[in-house]
Amino acid sequence: MPKDRPVIGLLCAHEQEKRDRWFVATAYIQAIIKAGGIPILIPYQPKEQIFHILEGLDGLVLPGGDDVDPGRFGENPIAQCGTIDPQWDDLDLWAAGFALERNMPILAICRGCQVLNVALGGTLIQDIPTQVRDSIKHAQQAPRWYASHDISVQSASLLGNIWGNDPKKVNSYHHQSIAKVGKGLRIVASAPDGIIEAVESSEHRFVLGVQWHPELMTEHYPVAGRIFEHFIQASLES
Questions:
Q1: 173 secondary structure, DSSP code
Q2: Is residue 62 part of a domain?
Q3: In a domain, 21, yes or no
Q4: Sorting pLDDT into bands at 50, 70 and 90, what band is 137?
């Protein structure tokens, strides 16, 4: 029978302080299922086992979460850098590297967008409020689905084709962002203060990183669902 539902790897987040657990927020699972994919949750484990799991998948989602260790891009942490987790960084960077090498479709969200950039040799702004002059509010205090600030989107891009004529606004839950763009990535969306809001690869079929959380917006903004639908379709064709 022809495959009609691609299997999507969904990397787990890690909680250490309250209780040691690897988990995934329900919104990611629901967004993948609604778009036509089958999510497979991947916790931290030896690299060889992660690669073995990924070999059987059609696409990969890098989700949001804690800060990436600045040591991963050659910097020391500034005072405002948040929680870092070496096992979580290993999981995400190993999986991202594997998927990129094999041209597997990737949808990278918030922290995931930053991981994607670091995996390709880029760097990060460690704390927007203290390192970016006249920055807007990127850690919104509003309903999680609500689009709180504007972005500009390059029309001649994968994201631009997905977005169409919908209002260009996003939700926002981050204090870090891309600084130097990684090899093969190009900027396709920015906030009014210049913060990079989306990148995509010029060397892969479908590699898209977004700094916001479309999985939380699918019930209120059609474009959020379309991002997952296009990702799932690319995974189906992989």
A1: B
A2: yes
A3: yes
A4: very high
Q: Which pLDDT does position 19 carry in this prediction?
A: 80
Cα of first residue to Cα of last residue in the chain, in angstroms, is 16
Q: Which residue has the tokens 């040691």?
A: 20
29: which 2 tokens?
């699972």
Domain that holds residue 168: 7-236
- Which runs of consecutive H residues, i.e. helices, occur in 40-197? 47-55, 86-101, 111-119, 128-131, 158-163
Question: Which of the residues 12, 81, 110, 113 is marked catalytic?
Answer: 110
Place of tokens 């073995």: 52
Identify whether 213 is a catalytic site residue: yes
| DSSP code of residue 179 | S
Amino acid in position 138: H
- Residue 95, CA atoms < 13 Å, CB-side half-sphere: 35
In the chain, the number of structural domains is 1
Question: Is residue 110 annotated as a catalytic residue, yes or no?
Answer: yes
pTM (two decimals): 0.96
Residue 1 within any structural domain of the chain:
no
Nearest Cα to 149, choosing from 200, 209, 197?
A: 197
| Tokens linked to 22 | 């690897």
Q: Which of 197, 200, 215, 229 is catalytic?
A: 215
Question: Can you tell me which residue has the tokens 């001649």?
Answer: 156
Is 100 a domain residue? Answer: yes
> What's the CATH code of the domain at 75?
3.40.50.880
Q: Is it the case that residue 18 has pLDDT exceeding 80?
A: no
